[in-house]
Design goal:
alpha/beta, Rossmann fold, 3 domains, four-stranded parallel beta sheet, 47% helix
Length: 308
């Protein structure tokens, strides 16, 4: 089995060279998909990497809405998705028409959009940001009329950390809400010295119980740089597996084995190979929303004006 995987990885490598292509993979992808990738990171990091890559073709090994955003960011390139059916339940739960209606009724409200979102959601917003960016933005304003989409738990955790009222519209990330407070309690009993790190898409009770609330790539950085030797990670299991591989001298424990993203796992080596072979599933930049998405995501990295 290992030999077959190695052979397929070698074929993918040759195809990348032939197609002048790169593969950007999310932290929640399987190990073999991460092995094939030129870059592995969180949503925010993948967008930044896409803006910097020199290859003509970019294969996004993540959920399809993220690939659509990448296509908006680099409209001059061919952006490929190994599986257009790899949706994101959390992104899909957002009622876009409901947000439009809210915006028309409350034009003074600032709409903040988390980076893991559809182009439509980002384009409707005033800001596109990560969790830390939202903490900084709201921590420096006294405004009480903000709406955060598309994850209700991100909104609740931002509000809890900043003390600012934040309205939410949208859904939740199924893998992260499967992590329960009792899971963290049980793991703490097993490893009382462990540092608990929670993803901001977790329930508020889990975030409150954690020693730090961090996005996936920030969790990676924290574990790498820490002199602590034991960690409980409340996030998707593939992130836990990556941390274990990269930190063999440390104990990395999952808060719950139920935190498994089936949508991410729809991406396989076989699908990556055939997508590059056939140059299939190319995504066109959205003409209606593309320019606005580019503007907001670029501001995320170059700096945006703080709210009044």
């Amino acid at each position: 089995m290992g030999t077959e995987r190695e052979a397929l990885l070698a074929k993918i490598k040759k195809l990348k060279e032939k197609r002048n292509a790169c593969i950007l993979a999310h932290n929640f992808q399987s190990y073999e998909v991460q092995e094939a990738a030129d870059f592995v990171g969180g949503t925010k990091e993948i967008y930044a990497e896409a803006l910097e890559r020199g290859e003509e073709n970019i294969l996004v090994a993540s959920v399809y809405p993220m690939a659509r955003v990448v296509a908006c960011l680099v409209p001059e390139k061919s952006v490929l998705s190994p599986d257009p059916n790899a949706g994101c339940p959390m992104i899909g739960m957002l009622d876009i028409e409901g947000v439009r209606a809210f915006k028309e009724k409350h034009p003074e409200t600032e709409i903040l959009c988390y980076v893991k979102a559809s182009p439509e959601a980002i384009a409707l917003s005033s800001y596109c940001l990560g969790f830390n960016d939202a903490l900084e933005l709201l921590g420096n304003t006294k405004r009480e009329d903000t709406l955060l989409i598309p994850d209700m738990h991100i909104a609740k955790n931002v509000s809890s950390k900043t003390g600012r009222p934040v309205t939410s519209k949208g859904g939740y990330c199924p893998p992260h809400v499967k992590i329960l407070p009792r899971d963290v309690d049980e793991m703490r009993k097993q490893s009382p010295e462990a540092i608990v790190l929670a993803h901001p898409e977790c329930r508020g009770e889990v975030a409150e119980a954690a020693d730090a609330v961090l996005e996936s790539e920030d969790i990676v950085k924290y574990v790498h740089e820490s002199d602590k030797k034991s960690f409980i990670v409340a996030s998707e299991v593939s992130l836990v597996e990556r941390l274990s591989r990269e930190n063999p001298d440390k104990e990395i424990l999952p808060a719950s084995s139920r935190a498994f993203c089936q949508s991410m796992k729809r991406i396989t080596l076989e699908k990556i190979y055939w997508t590059l072979e056939d140059m299939a599933h190319s995504i066109e930049a959205d003409e209606e929303y593309g320019a606005r998405v580019r503007e907001l995501v670029r501001k995320l990295y170059k700096g945006w004006q703080p709210m009044a």
